[in-house]
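Components:
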Amino acid sequence: DVKVTQSSRYLVKRTGEKVFLECVQDMDHENMFWYRQDPGLGLRLIYFSYDVKMKEKGDIPEGYSVSREKKERFSLILESASTNQTSMYLCASSLRLAASTDTQYFGPGTRLTVL
Amino acid sequence: QQPVQSPQAVILREGEDAVINCSSSKALYSVHWYRQKHGEAPVFLMILLKGGEQKGHEKISASFNEKKQQSSLYLTASQLSYSGTYFCGTGRPILTGGGNKLTFGTGTQLKVEL
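Structure:
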């Protein structure tokens, strides 16, 4: 079974702090993704990575950056947290099969509150 | 642009059927369906491909209409365990590496009651 783990289930930070959210997958997946989930808006893609040190912007990258130094680990960074970044953050990974069959596996999420 | 899901919410009695629709303004390559129970991670249900394909998983099946740019999820003889939020994701190939980039709809909340 694929396992995607995230470093914290709940996190409380103050406005202006630098925040790191960590994600680790144990199935040697090539692709990794960060989403945020807000009520009424569904899941929105922030960034994704298709290889170590390679990344691409998703649909809402503003205010975020990412880092992938090792294949199994993908970090989401909030350089200066703001209250509008209070959200549930979900990490996902996929093996990178043919586009028609590639499946994403999700972690349990980190609920971040910025005060 | 996010696909549009309808209905936003539905309440069923156990044993009833439901249909959830997912419409896109863009051409569809693939549609991915997920279910998320409260407080848990989204779980993959199935992928639908171009060609009007219909797939099934126990009493949950789905169809893909490429012309209408629409997919529908069919839940038959619903069970309490079907409760959760259902998301469709429209897939686009990641050209730089492979695999899919997904754009999710806003979700449909399904509650099954006794």
